[in-house]
């Protein structure tokens, strides 16, 4: 099956081991043999709009045809697969079953104790067509992924990474084991929604099922409570049980009714009152970013049937253009800044996280939204590219500042405390969206330059590491951490970007969550 792929050994299972993995269904076995025969019944699921779903849904939920992946077909894809396998080997040797690999100290870091790297990246493995790695990951999830962990987890992070990862691989394979795990886990998260307002708490203990605000604040982050809807809705559609969608959709409805600054929202919201902390920052970076992303993607996920999601998104883009977009001196690079003190003061600072935004804008334009969104996407994408190209490592810092008043001769500058790179995916994500819609190979070339930056300055003997300084090619200051999103998102987006088929994952059929996990669009 893996023609033109790097050599990988296929596990030859003995009789005893075959019995242990007998739950692997036909679609998985077909994947291992290189073909798929799942049927797509193409039945329609009606969207609930603002109403709750019926509580007596018993009809069979339609299954999409499993996607056939044949492994890498281009030389650049093959290099990405090699990078993934290098990272996987280090993780398997020194951090197996733990959340993150620390490749330099040959150890691990447990954030939640949920095997994040495995669960988060199994759909990447499947898309790359890696047989041995897939068998390893699936077996660990089946035998060892348990949710009776007596520690707090962050609702947003585990929803996009764990629930999202399980649902994504379920849709790609139709293996019910993943859906069963998804149900078990989601049920343990539902207590987060038991608040006075319906705005969820940020933290929950999956063992006790008790939820509460974070220790450092009474508030939840706006982006976190509004970036769980794709996952909970998808679980309801996959199971026919409306409770997950109802709880998450209510959050979007509540936020929809709140007063905003031309569609822009503060980054904190209180789960008891249901109100924004009005003095907090407005940003498309940390704690604000994916609110805007999920407005659009929820609208698409539900077949463009919930108008307020589209309208709130369009209003927000107008707010971005009116309040957050500026150009630098002297070269006029467009960037998206922040509003402080409840919108009173502008700060010319942009998180790397904001570089997801060109891809989201392009996705909206592709689906009939204003042409000005595409122009904004192209201009911001060019600026994001500059945040890489202006450094000798060809890697971007976590935060970039911009010159808007002629205070110095550089359009872009980086403060010492902001010069780290965490192996983030956002710009590569946007390049992939732009490439799929335009088929412009320039975006592939930009991505290749950045991939080489990762290879040259973050690759170590046992994996890849975040670095502390992108401004020097001789003093990058390795930080000894490989987050799960490097395998789940960054390498996945590189692989998709370098495909000779721009629609290897067709964005007219699928919506991709904030952690690069793939869900079907339920069209009407």
Structure description:
Belongs to the glycosyl hydrolase 47 family. It is a single-pass type II membrane protein. Pathway: Protein modification; protein glycosylation. One of its GO terms (molecular function) is metal ion binding. It is a single chain. With about 525 residues, the protein is mostly helical. It has a single domain (about 15-520), classed as Glycosyltransferase, CATH 1.50.10. About 45% of the residues lie in helices and about 10% in strands. The strands form eight sheets. Strands 3-4-5 form a three-stranded antiparallel beta sheet. The chain has a three-stranded antiparallel beta sheet with strand order 12-13-14, with no helix packed on it. The radius of gyration is 22 Å and the shape is globular. The two termini are about 35 Å apart.
């Amino acid at each position: 099956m893996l023609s033109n792929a790097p050599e990988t050994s296929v596990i030859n299972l003995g009789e005893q081991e075959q019995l242990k993995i007998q739950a692997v269904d036909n679609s998985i076995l077909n994947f291992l043999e290189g073909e798929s025969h799942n049927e797509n019944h193409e039945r329609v699921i009606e969207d609930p709009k603002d109403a709750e779903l019926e509580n007596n849904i018993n009809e069979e939920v339609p299954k999409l045809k499993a996607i056939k992946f044949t492994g890498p077909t281009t030389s650049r894809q093959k290099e990405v697969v090699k990078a993934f396998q290098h990272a996987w080997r280090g993780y398997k040797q020194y951090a197996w079953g733990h959340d993150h690999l620390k490749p330099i100290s040959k150890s691990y870091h447990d954030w939640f104790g949920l095997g994040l790297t495995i669960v988060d990246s199994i759909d990447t493995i499947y898309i790359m067509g890696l047989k041995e790695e897939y068998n390893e990951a699936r077996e660990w999830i089946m035998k060892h992924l348990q949710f009776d962990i007596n520690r707090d987890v962050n609702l947003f992070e585990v929803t996009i990474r764990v629930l999202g990862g399980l649902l994504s691989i379920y849709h790609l394979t139709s293996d019910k084991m993943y859906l069963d795990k998804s149900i078990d886990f989601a049920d343990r998260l539902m207590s987060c929604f038991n608040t006075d307002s319906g705005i969820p708490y940020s933290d929950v203990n999956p063992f006790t099922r008790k939820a509460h605000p974070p220790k450092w604040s009474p508030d939840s982050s706006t982006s976190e409570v509004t970036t769980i809807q794709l996952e909970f809705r998808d679980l309801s559609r996959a199971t026919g049980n409306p409770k997950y969608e109802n709880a998450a959709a209510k959050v979007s409805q509540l936020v929809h009714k709140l007063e905003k600054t031309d569609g822009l929202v503060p980054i904190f919201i209180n789960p008891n009152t249901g109100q924004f902390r009005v003095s907090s920052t407005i940003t498309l970076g940390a704690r604000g970013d994916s609110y805007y992303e999920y407005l659009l993607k929820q609208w698409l996920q539900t077949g463009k049937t919930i108008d307020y999601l589209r309208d709130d998104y369009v209003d927000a883009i107008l707010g971005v253009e009116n309040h957050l977009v500026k150009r630098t001196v002297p070269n006029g690079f467009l960037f998206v800044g922040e509003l402080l003190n409840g919108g009173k003061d502008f700060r010319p600072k942009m998180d790397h996280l904001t570089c997801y935004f060109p891809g989201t804008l392009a996705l909206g334009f592709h689906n009939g939204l204003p042409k000005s969104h595409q122009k904004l996407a192209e201009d911001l994408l060019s600026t994001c590219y500059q945040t890489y190209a202006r450094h000798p490592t060809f890697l971007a810092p976590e935060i970039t500042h911009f010159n808007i008043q002629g205070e110095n001769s550089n359009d872009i500058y980086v403060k010492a405390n902001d010069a780290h790179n965490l192996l983030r995916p956002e710009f590569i994500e946007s390049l992939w969206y732009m490439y799929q819609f335009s088929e412009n190979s320039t975006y592939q070339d930009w991505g290749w330059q950045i991939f080489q930056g990762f290879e040259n300055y973050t690759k170590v003997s046992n994996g890849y590491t975040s670095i502390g300084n992108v401004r020097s090619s001789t003093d990058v200051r390795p930080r000894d951490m490989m987050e799960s999103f490097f395998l789940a998102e960054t390498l996945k987006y590189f692989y998709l970007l370098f495909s000779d088929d721009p629609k290897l994952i067709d964005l007219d059929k699928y919506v991709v969550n904030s952690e690069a996990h793939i869900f079907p669009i339920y069209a009407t």
